[in-house]
Amino acid sequence: ASNGEELLRLPGTTEPIDFVSTKRVAYSPDGRLLIACDRNQVNIYDPASGDLLKTLDGHQADVTAIAISADGKLIASGSRDGSVMIWDSSSGDSLLQLVGHMDAIEELTFSPDGKWLVTASDDATLKIWDVLTGDILQDFVDFTGVVLGVTFSPDGKRFAFSDGTIHVWQFSPDSGEGQTKISNQEFFTIPDAVSE
How many separate helices (H) and strands (E) can be counted in the chain? Predict the structure, then answer.
């Protein structure tokens, strides 16, 4: 309805938590799935009917952020304990568990081609992961605060994030000598662009 009428109400999180993230609910790119955090699990709903289609179990702590790849095949979920899981959206199978953060996951996003996952945590780090192998390709730790937003440009050649300052970095993955390396170059910054 174009008038702002509520079409559906789902039960949502069964127990309120004090952690608030903007990444706790997401539509699949085709609009056929609605993915939502619920305590230490991820629920997948049919957004038209409200039917619960799948529950993804595996996190030991509350899930704080979710993302879905541009092709809709992968779901990433991050939790309060800093762990990240990658799931197959069709089967609901856990494909990888990524361990490296020391505090709650604030943000995560897939690159447009689905090969990389960027995660940001309350430990004031940002990590870039290889989605196929689970390897950390880059670990950035020199921030003025917690990174609260991460997004890729549509072509995947840049990504932007905020730690109080908005940073835009060139993103150039390079495979050579059997390893993938990320060369990053800060394209520009906007100091104090985000108020707390």
Answer: 0, 16
